[in-house]
Specification:
Elements lengths: L2 E6 L6 H14 L4 H4 E6 L2 H13 L4 E5 L16 H6 L4 E4 L2 H6 L4 H13 L3 E6 L3 H6 L2 H12 L11 E5 L13 H16 L9 E6 L7 H5 L6 E4 L6 H9 L4
Parallel strand pairs: 1-2, 1-8, 2-3, 3-4, 4-5, 5-6, 6-7, 7-8
Bound molecules: phosphoenolpyruvate.
């Protein structure tokens, strides 16, 4: 299976700065990268249009992701952006349930679920984020916590709607902190999640990608990305630096 590397730019870069970064990343990618890895960039809403234009005009082998989507389709919801609006911008993926949205914008598992269903209706691939806090981990109940996030967040997902689903394990204590999870932590959770979702009607080996996110850098990428169960990474801070981001992509050797 092709690995996937997603750059989450978060609330950074104007559309012009985004274009520059896209061009630098594209210039540094090896010619055959797309044969073994899908490279995805997730800029702010304001940059989606410009980035998409460069990708399609220059025929780049880079996919586009949104960082969020509305749970509503249309109407009086000031400030929201719908799945259909993203689809019309040729957005391929969308991050949903990122811990920063759960924490700062009070997104519950139920809201995340509504967003997942809207994305699947629009044939946009959800990058579904889940992961425990430091407190959950220290209390030892992190697997139950994750089980609940997944069972609620992926409720009513129908097999006929799922072409692809990215499940991103992002322990909150590892995001933006420099505290990367150990490979044993990652394997334990991804194996647990694989069993959990394999019991669901929408599961098939080919359509579920299990990835890791949390302080991935050129120093730790090789060990993480060359572990069999890990299908890729969601990269925050290091994705804003083209050298670091491309080094992470290039560390994939299987
Ligand atoms: C993220 O925001 O999803 C993330 C993993 O960030 P960082 O790589 O900076 O920890």
């Amino acid at each position: 299976m092709k690995k996937i590397i997603i750059g989450n730019w978060k609330l950074n870069l104007t559309h012009l700065e985004g274009i520059q970064l896209l061009q630098k990343i594209n210039y540094s990618l090896q010619k055959d990268t797309e044969e073994y890895v899908e490279v995805v960039l997730a800029p702010s809403f304001t940059s989606l249009r410009s980035i998409q234009t460069v990708i399609s005009t220059d025929k780049l082998k880079i996919k586009l992701s949104s960082q969020d989507v509305s749970r509503y389709s249309e109407g009086a919801y000031t400030g929201e952006v719908s799945a259909n609006q993203l689809l019309k911008l040729s957005v391929d993926y969308c991050i949903v349930g990122h811990s920063e949205r759960r924490e700062y914008f009070h997104e519950t598992d139920e809201i995340v679920n509504e967003k997942v269903l809207k994305l699947l209706d629009s044939e946009i691939v959800p990058i579904f984020c889940f992961g425990e806090s430091l407190q959950n981990r220290e209390q030892g109940n992190y697997l139950d916590y994750i089980k609940n996030q997944i069972n609620t967040g992926l409720k009513n997902v129908r097999k006929d709607k799922v072409n692809k689903l990215v499940l991103a394990y992002e322990p909150i204590w590892a995001i933006g902190t420099g505290n990367v999870a150990t490979i044993d932590n990652i394997i334990e959770v991804l194996e647990y999640v694989k069993v959990l979702v394999s019991e669901k009607s929408f599961f098939s080996e080919e359509n579920i990608l299990l990835i890791y996110g949390g302080s991935v850098s050129p120093d730790n990428a090789s060990e993480i990305l060359n572990t069999k169960i890990v299908n890729g990474a969601l990269v925050g801070g290091a994705s804003l630096d083209s050298d670091k981001f491309v080094k992470i992509i290039n560390s994939i050797s299987i």
